[in-house]
Design brief:
The structure holds two protein chains of two kinds. Chain A is an alpha/beta fold. Helices cover 41% and strands 24% of the residues of chain A. Chain B is built from eight helices and no strands. The longest helix of chain B has 40 residues. Classes of the chains: A alpha/beta, B mainly alpha. Chains A and B meet through α2 and β6 of A and α4 of B. The complex binds adenosine-5'-diphosphate and magnesium ion.
Chain lengths: 254, 259
């Protein structure tokens, strides 16, 4: 469903992505895990077509989209949605206007249907009763959930998350993680970028470990933990020490 | 090549690059302008903002320009016993030159700073990326409504400045030089010909396009952090003010040559 083939990208003469390849099946949750500055957000921007690549292919549903003309690229992006690290909420619009924005713009639905969808989605993310508030009146966790609501409302097949729990307290983080897990039950393909190992282990059906713009290991967490790669061993150091977590991972079926 | 030269060279290339990017954005504005119907709600809200935020400013700006114009020319004309001429000087001056120029400069600051800081903040907080990621074009959603709102609103605002200036000039002339109010008003209005009205009405439309598009452009190219946003707001106001002054000169010159 999503396939990146040998993507390379330079910015200001610096190699940011170095022959990155990934393949994510429909309905799967894939986590891209790595330290900050490794190129994780850049990969999301490439999938979204926000950054032109120097080399390689971005294939969504069998269609190469990185070389499409702008108009068709815009169309192709409509089956994807993204939750940015900064949420990127429209701060001049209320909660319900933010949620409705992309639905309204598509012009395909009646006002009544839009109101219905907005209501359903806001209750899915537990934001009922906040419809008239503005983003700066919301807590960090609520903003994140609103960003998820805005992404969900267009019923995208693919949702991309950039560091969904960074900056949230443990309770809000947990709520967001649960929300992401619930997406699987509605069949959404998710790509999650994070540097938080526990989130990655909890969410990912498959993972890719990235360092310095290069994917150094890919697969299930079970497989990755067997890696002999020095960086992987060091990055997961604490996991190797945590026997109950290791047992839980071993008990997972492939 | 020494360091200074190479810095100059880089900043020159950057300027050319910026001009090219600006032209591409303007081309997009024209190409996507049919979308205006779909985005009319944004146009209306931008028109409302421009109007409410600037009306007092241009009223005061126009009023004092007219008053000063009347006093300055009045004292000179008085030496020749020609104070009856004050009204036509104020009228021509306001309608053709100072009304549009003062309004243009005030709006370059007011509307220009607003557009750049709003769109720039949206760029820094990834709101522009969010639009693009969801398949929307930021030029269509953010730039075109602001350009159209400016195209529609700058002319009435300029007319308000013109009127405030003529009325201000009228009262100060009456008080200072004892010129009859009705006489002043009648000459001020009757001497205006099509050419004067045309020049006075065309300038704000021209200015509005450049002010709105330049300020939106500086917003869109904002990168990095809030320091750059501040810098871009300054660049935006400075550039659009320069463009207003230059266009004002070019337009006046061209019209005098051909009409
Ligand atoms: N516009 C840019 N120009 C130059 N370098 C950039 C730009 N954007 C990001 N980078 C660099 O690319 C690398 C990867 O960035 P990013 O993808 O944001 O990392 P991550 O999301 O993994 O923290 C970083 O070293 C960053 O400094
Ligand atoms: Mg990042």
């Amino acid at each position: 469903m999503i396939e990146l083939k040998d993507i390379s990208l330079q910015l200001n003469g610096k190699l940011i992505l170095d022959e990155v390849s990934l393949s994510i099946d429909k309905g799967q949750t894939h986590v891209i895990l790595g330290p900050s500055g490794a190129g994780k957000s850049t990969i999301l921007r490439v999938i979204l077509g926000l950054l032109p690549i120097d080399n390689g292919q971005v294939i969504i549903d069998g269609r190469e989209i990185s070389s499409l003309p702008e108009k068709e690229a815009l169309q192709a992006r409509r089956q994807m949605a993204v939750v940015f690290q900064s949420n990127a909420l429209f701060d001049s619009l209320t909660v319900s206007e933010n949620t409705a924005y992309f639905l309204k713009d598509s012009g395909l639905l009646e006002k009544k249907e839009i109101d219905e969808s907005v209501k359903t989605v806001l209750s899915f993310v537990n934001l009922d009763g906040t419809e008239g508030l503005y983003p700066d009146q919301l807590s960090g966790g609520m903003k994140k959930r609103l960003a998820v609501a805005r992404a969900l409302v267009t019923r995208p097949q693919i949702i991309l998350f950039d560091e969904p729990t960074t900056g949230l307290d443990p309770i809000n983080s947990k709520a967001v993680l649960n929300l992401i897990q619930r997406l699987k039950s509605i069949g959404t393909t998710s790509v999650i970028v994070t540097h938080i190992i526990n989130d990655a282990i909890m969410l990912g059906d498959t993972l890719s470990i990235i360092e310095n713009g290069k994917i150094i290991e890919s697969g299930t967490i079970k497989k990755i933990l067997q890696s002999q790669n020095g960086f992987v061993r060091e990055f997961f150091y604490e996991v190797y020490q945590d026997s109950s977590l290791l047992n839980e991972i071993q008990a997972r079926d492939e | 090549m020494n360091e200074d030269e190479s810095t100059i060279k880089v900043s020159f290339t950057e300027k050319i690059q910026k001009l090219q990017d600006y032209s591409l954005m303007v081309a997009d504005v024209f190409r996507l302008s049919p979308s205006i119907g779909k985005n009319r709600a944004s146009v209306l809200s931008e028109m409302y903002l421009i109007g409410t935020q600037a009306v007092f400013l241009v009223l005061v700006g126009g009023l004092f320009t007219g008053v000063i114009l009347a006093i300055e020319t009045g004292h000179n004309l008085e030496k020749f016993g020609a104070t009856l001429m004050i009204s036509r000087t104020v009228s021509y001056g306001m309608i053709r030159e100072l009304g549009p120029a003062i309004t243009g400069l005030l709006l370059a600051a007011r509307t220009g700073a607003k557009n750049t800081s709003e769109i720039g903040a949206m760029q820094l907080s990834e709101q522009i990326d969010a639009l693009k990621a969801f398949g929307l074009n930021p030029v269509e959603k953010l730039v075109i409504p602001r350009v159209f709102a400016a195209l529609i609103m700058f002319l009435p605002l300029t007319m308000i400045a013109d009127m405030a200036g003529i009325l201000g000039g009228m009262f100060i002339t009456n008080m200072t030089f004892n010129i009859d109010l009705a006489y002043f008003w009648n000459t001020a209005i009757h001497i205006l010909q099509f050419k004067d009205i045309f020049v006075g009405a065309f300038k704000p439309i021209l200015f509005s396009f450049f002010i709105a598009s330049i300020s939106c452009f500086y917003g869109l190219i904002t990168r990095g952090g809030t320091t750059n946003l501040g810098k871009n707001a300054i660049h935006s106001v400075v550039t659009s003010s320069m463009v207003v002054i230059l266009l004002d000169f070019i337009f006046t010159k061209v019209v005098w040559e051909i009409m």
